[in-house]
Amino acid sequence: MKEGFTQSIGMCLGLIYGMSIGIATHNIGFWLPIGLCFGLLLGAAMEKRNTKNQTNLKKIL
């Protein structure tokens, strides 16, 4: 995968979840940035996991 692709996926998921919770609670201004932060953390974790798996695969081959 390209560099930063997983972070953008995490960011989009965070925005979707933050917007959904914000609409449900009628407080979009609070939940949108919270969802974005969680999405960035999720994307960073996914990217770290992918790079770890790729380095392990290179060691095996």
Quick structural summary:
The protein has 61 residues and is mostly helical.
Structural write-up:
With 61 residues, the chain is mainly α. It has one domain. Helices cover 89% and strands 0% of the residues. It is built from 2 helices and no strands. Helix 1 packs antiparallel against helix 2. The model has no long low-confidence stretch (mean pLDDT 83).
Number of domains: 1
Work out the helix count: 2
Overall geometric form: rod-shaped
Could you give a short account of the major beta sheet? Answer: none
End-to-end distance: 19 Å
Radius of gyration: 15 Å
Rounded average pLDDT: 83
The helix content is over 70%
Beta content comes to: under 5%
* SS-based class: mainly alpha
What attributes characterize this protein structure?
rod-shaped; 61 residues; mainly alpha
Topology:
Elements: H1 5-25, H2 28-60
